[in-house]
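Good morning C.,

I know you're traveling, so I'll keep this short. The sequence:
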Amino acid sequence: MLLAEQLVGEARARRQQRLDHRERLVEGTSALLYVAVAVGLALLFPSTREADPVLMACLVVGYVAVSRVRFEFSDVYVSAEQLVFIPMLVLVPVEYVPLLVAAAGLLSVLPEVMSGTWHRQRVLYAFSDSWFAIGPVLVVLALAPGTASLDDWGVYLAAFAAQVLFDLGAGLIRDSLQTRPPLVEFLRSSLGTVQVDAILAPIAFVLALEAYVDPLVLLAIGPLVWLLRVFSKDRQERYSTTLELNRAYRGTVMLLADVVESDDGYTGEHSRSVVELVQAVTDHLHVDPGTRQEMEFAALLHDVGKISIPKDILNKPAKLTAEEFELMKTHTVEGQFLLDRVGGLLGRIGEVVRSCHERWDGQGYPDGLAGEKIPLAARIVFVCDAYNAMTTDRPYRQAMSTAAAIEELKANAGTQFDPTIVAALIEVIEDAEPERRAADDMRMLLSEVRMGDTVGSASASAS
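The tokens, ready to paste straight into the viewer:
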């Protein structure tokens, strides 16, 4: 599964779950502080604009409608709220804007809370995700609190910069307190929000200035919002379809793994152990997360073709004859053939399975590939497979010690094995034995992924 699709699926599932203790504490505190600041601004700053209750109510309704047009990006989603937020800054008393934003954010997520696609505790995000409004309000109150004009474009540009800083700053503080992703990942996931807001802000600013003369001008936002809704629904449905397809792939992987284990207990146990080693090596090598899952599936299924090998050969308590070894070697091609019949993701995994016995020096099978022409995943699986095979008992020999197996890996690095992978595996082994987690993690993933057609949040929430 692509990393972005995996994050979308995890975010959809997470929004249905209650907050843990730390999350409740952080989000609850953030929400209370936001409400206190918003009320303080409304009470302490004198109004320099006319407060039109009807206009404010209409803007809140519009904000709710726009907030419900959502584009999913990784584990967050983005809405076109800028189309209504800017008119709020321009048309209503500025000191009321934070309260209006919070009220609209709360109303926008109530349908998800009522339908169960968003746990009721997550309404806290409607407030804590509204911090982006504080920065621009402070800038406008300080520099242009009266009637807005085109001459104030510099002020509103500064207000947009303050919006980005407050949004990113508040999100980063909350995420760091909840031990969420590192700074680079946080900024990458926030990029979609900044891009959408930057595109929509000039349009919204021009419409808001025109609305001073005729408020009905704001109705021009309607067709644009409708167009965005069409695109967002299409994107959401494609994500749902892809997530369901990948869920089916994962189910197929686990089914095949169970078939392998029931067919030959040693091969099943060996495959799970290889997955654990592969996970540890990919961690050590900082392998791209987008390809890591395919590596883990390839490790789990690298011996799936052995279900076509006669049991008397698989479990022979003596060295195989030349004819028997030639038959044994066909398990890589048989594995690829089996996975190719499923196609898609498993078809790509089948290509790795085929190459899991190719040697670094080109003397392996079935295609005699050498060096970096062998897929990276196959090179990693090959080394981990060999180490686990050496350190487990077989009908024809006793297990080697860890030290002896490491020496064997070193002796064959550069000929049989990729020396970089050997070095990484040895470091992993010497640091600590990998945790047993692979099969259980995958089964947990299958049971926890729940599909939802809609999700709820504020402008760009990881909730």
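Safe travels,
E.
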